[in-house]
Design a protein that fits this description.
Layout: E1 2-4, H1 14-24, E2 33-36, H2 51-56, E3 66-71, E4 76-79, H3 82-89
């Protein structure tokens, strides 16, 4: 998962991000999930706090941030809702 904070006025474009990661990263390095946050939590040494992100996982029922997952069939990052989360958890949707 990649947790990001968009610049003021910027919008998230799942199609463009998918194309960018496909063209610039090996398949294993492209994030399967994107979490859009209002602000990034940082430590006293300006590193991103990841422990809360790891603990929360990617359950849209628990997280208020916008979540997206990499859908290779659509060639885009698409919104991750409760139904899609359940399909992933129940292994009906392969990542």
């Amino acid at each position: 998962m990649a947790a990001v904070c968009l610049k003021d006025g910027a919008t998230f474009d799942g199609d463009k991000l998918y194309a960018f990661t496909r063209d610039t990263l090996p398949a294993y390095a492209a994030p399967r999930f994107i979490r859009i946050q209002d602000s990034l939590e940082i430590t006293g040494t300006f590193k991103q706090c990841k422990s809360n992100l790891v603990r929360e996982g990617f359950d849209p029922n628990l997280i208020r941030d916008r979540l997206f997952f990499r859908d290779d069939s659509r060639r885009s990052y698409v919104p991750l809702g409760p139904d899609t989360f359940s399909a992933i958890r129940d292994m009906k949707l392969s990542l």
